Give the backbone structure.
Amino acid sequence: MHFNPQHMEIEQIYSRLLSCGQRALSICAANPGEGVTSVALALAQRNLLAGKSTLLVDFNCYRPTLKPLLSLGGNSAKHPEEMLFSAAAEPQLLGSAEGELAITGIPCPQRREFIMTLRKPGMLEQCIEQWLQNYDSILFDTSALNRSNGNNIPPERVAAACDGAVLVVLAGSTTEAMAASAITRLQDGGAQLLACIYNDRDNPSLKNELLRELNRLEPRFKGIVRYLGAWLRNNRLLAMSI
């Protein structure tokens, strides 16, 4: 899933979040596959288009997406904390799996001792404080809130260390109970929930559904389908956003 950073929906999200003074944001979701990485990448790109230096931190240990484009050696003998702050001073150039994107960021930690270091009280806050000395904004791509395991950096802990959290909800997939459980975990962790983003990838609008069903009649009723299709596309009621 890829969101164009210049789409109006991304523009609305950006204007309500990153342009309002928040410098460190955690993007999270109740379950994997709800679009957290896509939202984080789109917001990072939009922030760069606004002329602001942006650091994208990949803490999605369940399904890391961004990989270093350059191999940085020489850190194997360092203590995890030294490795962490070395990465903070010299972030890497990360690329997407499709090879269509390159962005400055911190790759997802792989070593167990590195993850345990990040879990220490106050460590994330120190990292953010240091990163903010060099960047205008920091965006965190986190693991799913409702999927906890020993290899994760707790997303509610990341959110609490940031200025706020944004919860991505996949319509038609995430239940009310799942979303409520995720919000509870954020609140119990001391995080400030700033907004919820409604991802309607699997829940198309009535207008799109009518057009899809109408296309099934095209082989037999081309003239009627063309007329009704134009009427549906220009209908003001169906074009209204909810």
The chain has two domains: 8-199, 206-239. Residues 36-49 form the longest helix (14 residues). The first strand starts at residue 24 and ends at 29. Strands lie at 24-29, 54-59, 67-68, 92-95, 102-106, 137-142, 164-170, 193-199.
